[in-house]
User: What shape does this take?
Amino acid sequence: MIVAAIAVLMRARQVDQLYDYEVPASVDIQIGQCVMVPFGARYVLGYVVRLTQADQAAAPGETQTRALRMIDREPLHDAPMLAAELVELAAFLRDRYMCTWGSAISTMLPPVTRTKQKVRYRASEQAGGSPLPEELLRYLKRYRGASRKTLVERFQVSAQQLAKWLEDGSLTVVSEAVQKYVRTRATASAKDDPAAVDPPLEASMTLSSEQQAAYDAVCASMDQGAAQTFVLRGVTGSGKTEVYLQAIEYSLQRNLQAIMLVPEIALTAQMTARFKRRFGARVAVLHSHLTERDKHTEWHRIANGQADVVVGARSAIFAPLTRLGLILVDEEHESSYKQEREPRYVVREVAQWRAQRAGAVMVLGSATPSLDAMYRAERGRYQLLTLNTRIQRRPLPEVSVVDMRQEVRRGGHSLFSGALREGLQHTLARREQAILFLNRRGFSTVLLCRECGEAATCPHCDVSLTLHKTRDGSRLRCHFCGHSEGLRTQCAGCGSVRVRQFGAGTQRVEHELLELFPDLRVVRMDVDTTTAKGAHERLLAEFERGDADVLLGTQMIAKGLDFERVSLVGVVAADTSLRVPDFRAAERTFQLLVQVAGRAGRHGTPGRMIVQTFAPDHYAILAAARQDYGRFYETELAARKMMDYPPFTEITQFMIAHRDGPTAQRHAAALQDELARRLQSAAGVRVLPAVPAAVPRAKGLYRYQVTALYRSFAAVRSAVQDVYRHAQNKAPADLSITVDVNAHSVG
Ligand code: ADP
Ligand code: ZN
Ligand code: ZN
Assistant: This one.
């Protein structure tokens, strides 16, 4: 008898285990297939993780006492199938990041299930009402309710009868989330195949000597199949992408395949077009903004072997390639390479797992490599490759830092310093373009009472509300939970009507910009202007055509963009990202500023960058102004060493959330106690006291965090896993406990 171990596609922790099913001889099944299996009263979707031959001698009825349920349906042949390698990768994700089988598998595939709300009828708990037929009552108890269809077809309940039972309270209605299988076609239609209409492919360029050296090292390593990891540090505009493209070409010549990861926000039409020009129909593109249908089409093109170059955001690391030779991670330092919802995986680690398995080469590219990557390169675990000069020796932009404290002292109220105003004027006079960067959207970010100093905060979260100008007036919005309300004219604390706006967002910058330069054509890009499908591309195209003078935006304009006529980059407030309570704040600020600077002077026009800040002496800002990576790295590394933070340690963080503050705190303290007790004898491990999270209340829940720092995950793994499972089991249903292994951002 064959027994299949099935992981069901449900995210609930209570069902996070493998379930054994007997496979009848009539059903042909393989590892990685999607199957519909009986589960309780219904059928659910699952994937085959293991197949074992149950011991013939022991069957039937001897040691095999458990009654196995039977797989009584054919596997779903049109569903995406998990290659054996990816089944093992799911097990790795579950073990490393403590996620469920369901979330691990769902993350690796295009959507297989869709949750739908369905109405179910239940027998009411309280007495009263008219008695229900015995058989129906039994059914409702056993299966915790029934659908309308079941009532009508199986129990012949008429519409009038149903209405009556609902009215007299014999039945109640509940709305339940039900999984639906997303049916897709496994093959792309001929019309989807772009090969037929593709223009001739673009030829590769002659590499500079620095590019050539990097390329040679990567190719030599591919020849060896030794799963080497490279850090490619190249200043912006030094031609990293060209090295990626040619390394991919090399892998294709050797009949190997490649994955090129880019941060979601950098995955613009520009980047995709560049890849399609080079590789045509062999490219598949995967990212979260694709329609469900396109996700399936692209996924199947990869699985079928039609596409062997995958360009995509984070989750493209799970692309079902079978002859992987090269994994490229562009802008390796980007925070979007860490998934902040379950499974909370780190792309670099998953990539490493796949590279190791396939003997593939991994390249982590960036102008500002993360401390984690650079530290490993320094220690010899990764190999460092550098591109020190921009292509054609185009100079990096000249950077000036403006001390906004002095501007204020001189009585300036404007968001724009004299230097930035002049810079803009100059740029416009020469009919060049400018990019203005500010990492905050909305109009003003704080509303403060002039009488008592109270800020307008979200009723559900401990964050201040941001003022947004809308077509019909102003609204206050919470950027954390989405709460929105009309403008408050009175202080909630003291009732005063003297309320003042502080802190500027992109909307206000735009507003002031147009007051200074009434004829200016501005394109604003932030979450608020790019929600519509295609808006992102449309706005960028508008700027690229020269239909706008200024591109103003949040971090979505910081990277990957390449515009010919941009000669000025202005950073409106460089310290917004410094004032975040996170040990990576300095690193993020440095990276962001260097990235933004890289947008200027990429072509003939020499570039200039003006950085406005209230912290002109901060080492992150000084080093960014000089584009001095080495100096920043040394300073930051010394600070991390002193604090015993990553890359010297790894951090795992638990988050405990509950409607009631003291309840959350109590459970957090208990978890912290337990963790400390289990780890007290382990060397080099610290468990910090439970404290309120950086945002102590969010979406109506009080949040506490428990943090552990350690040098080796192997030394803490089982303790962390046990404590987490135990806490989950003990927790009341309305308490939420999450764990983030190798947390990248810590409050
Ligand atoms: P990065 O990825 O490091 O920012 P890119 O690869 O985008 O740099 O290169 C910057 C610019 O230089 C692009 O316009 C690219 O087409 C051009 N370029 C890159 N390599 C070469 C080369 N070897 N010869 C000529 N132009 C090049
Ligand atoms: Zn007040
Ligand atoms: Zn909120």
In short: The chain has a mean pLDDT of 89. Residues 458, 460-461, 478, 480-481, 483 surround zinc ion (ligand 3) (CB under 6 Å). Residues 2-114 form a domain with the GIY-YIG endonuclease fold (CATH 3.40.1440.60). The radius of gyration is 29 Å.
